[in-house]
Design brief:
There is one protein chain. By secondary structure, this protein is α/β, with parallel strands linked by helices. It is built from seven helices and seven strands; from the N terminus they run βαβαβαβαβαβααβ. The protein has a single domain, classed as NAD(P)-binding Rossmann-like Domain (Rossmann fold, 3-Layer(aba) Sandwich), CATH 3.40.50. A seven-stranded parallel beta sheet has the order 3-2-1-4-5-6-7, sandwiched between helices. The longest helix has 26 residues. It is globular. It holds the Pfam family adh_short_C2.
């Protein structure tokens, strides 16, 4: 039980990578506060976790809202007495729109979820972790769109590059306070995230697909979950400010 008696917050936990990460933390003994807009999905997740070593507690809400960001960390501390791990997983895509096709509306929509939410959640979590003798651990989920410019639209790419930068800055600033911060950059993962993309830029999509190796199959949510639990555990105690690319070799070409 790597996370017995640990308190974990996972955002974007209603589906995909976040859902799997939350369940795996619970299997390892953690009390896991799960955050997402779809309350019914969180209740399903709570029920699925019954019988596991740990426990899942839903906290429905929009991660781009200040009251939700503050409330989810306060709720975790109230229920568990502390916060050991924050996993900033919530994120949305930008329809592969290159810079000539972006709008202010799309900019605000993407940045509020992909950047403002994780940034302010990190601020709130670090403020609590500074009070704790054992510090804490932050795992950010970015994308290979945060390490290069050919895998998404302009705004998504900017948001994920920013998360990589915030990760490194947070790791450096608080390393002597026993607070670690690392980031995972997945490649294509088999989730439902593309289902919400209704107005794809055909030009942007063609440019993104042009550089992909068609022989590489999408990753699985368990691939990302395994990486997240590793970075949150003592197994990676000397890993801080790292950018862990989990993409099956897509970035190697």
């Amino acid at each position: 039980m790597r996370f017995k008696n640990k308190v974990v917050v996972v955002t974007g936990a209603s589906s995909g990578m976040g859902r799997k990460i939350a369940l795996d933390f619970a299997k390892e003994g953690a009390l896991v506060v799960v955050v997402a807009r779809r309350a019914e999905r969180l209740e399903e997740l709570k029920n699925e976790a019954k019988g596991l070593e740990g426990k899942i507690l839903p906290y429905p809400g929009d991660i781009s809202k200040d009251e939700v960001i503050e409330g989810m960390i306060d709720f975790a501390v109230k229920e568990g007495g502390k916060i050991d791990v924050l996993v900033n997983n919530a994120g949305i895509m930008d329809e592969f729109k290159p810079v000539a096709e972006i709008t202010r509306e799309l900019y605000e929509k993407i940045l509020n979820v992909n950047l403002y939410g994780p940034l302010m959640a990190t601020k709130k979590a670090v403020s609590e972790m500074l009070k704790q003798a054992d510090g804490g651990n932050i795992v950010n989920i970015a994308s290979i769109g945060g390490t290069n410019g050919a895998r998404a639209g302009a705004i998504y790419t900017a948001s994920k590059h920013a998360i990589v930068g915030i990760t490194k800055n947070t790791a450096y600033m608080y390393t002597h306070k026993k607070i670690r911060c690392n980031v995972i950059c997945p490649g294509g993962v088999d989730t439902e995230v593309m289902d919400s993309q209704k107005n794809l830029s055909q030009f942007g999509l063609e440019r993104v697909m042009a550089g992909l190796d068609s022989t590489i199959t999408p990753g699985k949510v368990e691939d990302i979950s395994a990486a997240a639990l590793f970075l949150a555990s003592d197994e990676s105690k000397f890993t801080n400010g790292a950018v862990l690319v989990v993409d099956g070799g897509v970035s190697a070409n």
